[in-house]
Amino acid sequence: MSSNESAAGIAHVYRGTFVHATYHTAVEILEDGLLGVDTEGKIAFIGSGKEVDRLSQKWGFEAFAVTQLGQHEFFMPGMVDTHIHASQYSYAGTALDMPLLQWLNMYTFPVEACYKDLEFARNVYTHVVKRTLRNGTTTACYFATIHTDASLLLGQIANDFGQRALVGKVINSYPLVRPVVTPRFAPSCSATLLGHLGEIAQNNDLHIQSHISETKEEVSLVKELFPDYDSYTDVYHRHNLLTDKTVMAHGCHLTDGELKLFRETGASIAHCPNSNISLCSGMLDVRRVLNHKVKLGLGTDVAGGYSPSMLDAVRRTLDTSKALTIQDTQYHTLTFEEVFRLATLGGSQALSLDENTGNFEVGKDFDALRVNTDAAGGPIDLINHGEGPKVYVAGKRVVPFVERP
Ligand code: GUN
Ligand code: FE
Description:
- By secondary structure, the chain is of the alpha/beta class.
- Helix content is 34%, strand content 23%.
- It is built from twelve helices and 18 strands.
- The protein has helices at residues 52-59, 100-112, 118-134, 148-161, 191-204, 216-225, 232-237, 256-265, 273-278, 286-291, 310-327, 336-350, and strands at 10-20, 28-38, 43-48, 67-68, 73-77, 79-85, 137-143, 164-168, 177-181, 207-212, 246-250, 268-271, 296-298, 368-372, 380-382, 391-393, 396-398, 401-403.
- Strands 6-7-8-9-10-11-12-13 form an eight-stranded parallel β-sheet, sandwiched between helices. Strands 1, 2, 3, 4, 5 and 14 form a six-stranded mixed β-sheet that branches. A two-stranded antiparallel sheet has the order 15-18.
- Mean pLDDT is 94; it is low at 1-8.
- Bound molecules: guanine and fe (iii) ion (FE).
- Residues 75-396 form the Amidohydrolase-related domain.
């Protein structure tokens, strides 16, 4: 990697294709872009490759120090997993034969009890951080367990491997890691506990995460346990747990009134389609959530979801949207461009981290994936490149490819 750390604070300059979402456009592609990163890792400038001479004078880097991306490479923002249980990674891909409440009692609670053992925790947490990073998750909002030492360890491991993370429960911060107040879900909390957690979050301006309206059975249980509240959402709201730093997983069965409360408070939803199908919980109508102008990101929800990959979450989001379209042919299906935005900028917004991450804007951190579609031994075969049938979309030549599993 070329660098020029002495001049004008520019540490790296990259030239090539940049793909990202903006607040106005689901996917924006900058061909032959030129992006400079300062010594603090922040984007100093974004321009065109054709301006390299002017920009090198202005910013004081040598044109030969520019890192040129290959023809089949591009940069995209790191993906944001807005909901993943680090403590459930050890059994991901198994135990998906029960509905949520039985699944929790039969599999999840016994495994999570093991995290009193720090060596067990270190082993699983190291694997989950490395695996999610390998899959392109540069930011993760983690559920851990009630064991403070193990949760601190997860924060340290994420920080050491360079992953941005929110970790709950945890009581102090690392440079890349912040604490998140984490009531598991209303059925496992008393009103008194919820009240105290709301207070802690408010007094310390902390993030909050929990689960909401994942299954119909759970919604009924909350009605029984909290009979004096208007709705499941009202249970959290009346304890100051719905803020613009709150992310609630699932929300499959929320009413319009509840979504309105999300909008008013700025709370967001983590959509976890793999989990919702795997545990037969429900199918979230993402279009409806977006129409309510509620912030929404994607989550893997390992191990209710069997895959730690955000690319899987993207695919399952499209699958669920298409399943809703099968049920109602008038349904406004999500496009892959919209889902790309949800996996990147949408996730950053959902976690209220979009001041610093989520897309390529001057002043934000350069938090990016360098993707090579032509990597040796990779999963993609580029077909007929440069010759053979030409395919045009909206007047632009595209190179067709097929992906091999
Ligand atoms: N609701 C409460 N706890 C959990 C959990 O661990 N996983 C999922 N999917 N839902 C929950
Ligand atoms: Fe979950």
